[in-house]
Write a structure and sequence with these properties.
By secondary structure, this protein is α/β, with parallel strands linked by helices. Helix 6 links the parallel strand 6 and strand 7. The two termini are 34 Å apart.
C-alpha cells in the first residue's frame, strides 16, 4: 500500500459505539454518530450504526451528501447552522438541522417548500461556551418563529459545550437546558422529541448524574472514534483508543548534529521548535507535512521523538530504532491529528483489516 495512509479499525469504532449505546441507553439517551472528523466516511458511519447509533450527523453539507451517496440508511442531521447559500442543498441531503437564526429558518422553510418536503429543526441554546445558540430569554421567540413556518417541523432543542471556550457540562447548565425545553413546549403547545445534550464532552455528566432531566440524545464523535473524553483527553473505561493509525514512509535517515548552526531566524511557520540535546542524532524524515497533519496531533512510536515539521517533512529523532529509508512508521493520532489527516487529499484512508480504500475524495460528492 502507498503512504501516507490512515488505517481504520472499523470493529473498534463499532465496539466503542456499542459500549456507549448500552451505557447511555440505560439512561434513556440515544447516540447520534458524528462523522465530520472522517470526511463523512460511509464505512465509518455504518460501523457506528452497527454499534447502536440511532442517527448520523455532520457539520458539512458535502459530507452528508457523501453519506447519502454511500447508501447509508439513517436520519442525517446537519450540526452546523446552514449557510443561507446552502439551504436548497440542506433539504436534499439532511432530514434535520440545528438553528439559531430566524432568517435562516425562513429561508430553509422556503427551500423545503420548493422541494415538496418538510424539514425538521432543532433550536440551539447558548449555555456559556459562546459558540452557536441563542440566550435562554430569546428561545421561546425563536421557537414560535420555527413553529409558525409552513415547511418546518420543530422537533427539539439542543446545546453545545466545551468546543469553543471549554465550558464543561454540569448539573446547572444541563438543568437549564431542561427548563428551557419546558418553556418552549408551553409556548408552542408541542412535545419535543429531541433534547440534544451536546457532544462527547457531555459523556461524563450523562454517565455520572443522578438526573439527566429531559436530555435524550448526545452527538458523539471523538468518544466513538478515539475512545477518549474530550474534557481530559483520558481514555474512557471499556473503550478502545486504537481505531486509527497514521502510516508514513521514511525518505531520509542520516546522522546529523542535534542542534542547527548558523544565524537563526524564523522558520517557514514562525519560531522554530527547540531541539534538545547535544552531539548527534539519528535523524529520520517521513513524507508527512502540515498539509497532512499537525505534529502536535501525532503519537510517535516508542523510542522515536518528533523534532519538527514543515509543509511536507516530518523530522524525527529515531533513537535506537533500526528503521531505514523505505520503512513505514506507525503513529497514533489525537482528535486534531485525526481531523487533519482524514481530510487531507494526500492521505488515503483504508480499512486496516484488508487495506481497501474507504474514503471517497471530496470532489466526488456533489450537493447540486
Amino acid at each position: 500500500m502507498s503512504a501516507p495512509r490512515l488505517e481504520v479499525d472499523l470493529e473498534a469504532i463499532e465496539a466503542n459505539t456499542r459500549v456507549l449505546a448500552a451505557r447511555l441507553g440505560s439512561r434513556g439517551i440515544g447516540i447520534t454518530g458524528v462523522t465530520k472528523a472522517v470526511l463523512g466516511s460511509p464505512a465509518v458511519a455504518s460501523a457506528m450504526l452497527r454499534g447502536g447509533a440511532v442517527g448520523l450527523a455532520d457539520s458539512r453539507v458535502e459530507n452528508l451528501a457523501r453519506l447519502a451517496a454511500g447508501d447509508v440508511e439513517s436520519v442525517r442531521t446537519l450540526i452546523r447552522s446552514p449557510m443561507l447559500s446552502q439551504v436548497d442543498a440542506v433539504v436534499r441531503v439532511a432530514g434535520v438541522s440545528l438553528h439559531s437564526e430566524p432568517t435562516v429558518l425562513e429561508a430553509l422553510s422556503a427551500a423545503a417548500g420548493l422541494a415538496g418536503t418538510t424539514h425538521s429543526v432543532v433550536l440551539m441554546l447558548e449555555l456559556g461556551d459562546l459558540r452557536e445558540g441563542v440566550l435562554g430569554e430569546a428561545m421561546t421567540g425563536l421557537a414560535r418563529t420555527a413553529a409558525s413556518l409552513p415547511h418546518l417541523r420543530l422537533v427539539g432543542v439542543g446545546t453545545n459545550l466545551a468546543c469553543q471556550s471549554g465550558v464543561a457540562p454540569d448539573q446547572d447548565n444541563m438543568g437549564e437546558l431542561s427548563s428551557v425545553v419546558a418553556e418552549v413546549e408551553a409556548a408552542t403547545d408541542a412535545r419535543l422529541s429531541v433534547i440534544s445534550g451536546g457532544n462527547s464532552a457531555s459523556l461524563g455528566w450523562a454517565l455520572r448524574t443522578t438526573d439527566v432531566g429531559r436530555v435524550n440524545e448526545l452527538r458523539l464523535g471523538e468518544a466513538l472514534l478515539l475512545g477518549r473524553d474530550p474534557l481530559t483527553r483520558m481514555p474512557l473505561a471499556g473503550l478502545r483508543q486504537d481505531a486509527f493509525i497514521l502510516v508514513g514512509e521514511l525518505i531520509e535517515v542520516q546522522s546529523k548534529p542535534a542542534q542547527p548552526w548558523g544565524r537563526l531566524a524564523q522558520s517557514a511557520f514562525g519560531a522554530p521548535p527547540a531541539r534538545l540535546g547535544t552531539g548527534s542524532v539519528r535523524q529520520g524524515i517521513v513524507a508527512l507535512g502540515r498539509q497532512d497533519v499537525e505534529s502536535s496531533g501525532l503519537v510517535p512510536p516508542d523510542g522515536v521523538r518528533v523534532l519538527g515539521m514543515s509543509s511536507d517533512h516530518l523530522v524525527l529523532d529515531l533513537g535506537d530504532s533500526g528503521a531505514r529509508v523505505g520503512d513505514e512508521l506507525r503513529f497514533g493520532v489525537d482528535y486534531g491529528g485525526l481531523l487533519r489527516a482524514a481530510t487531507s487529499p494526500f492521505v488515503e484512508t483504508v480499512d486496516g483489516s484488508c487495506q481497501d480504500v474507504i474514503r471517497t475524495e471530496p470532489s466526488s460528492a456533489r450537493i447540486a
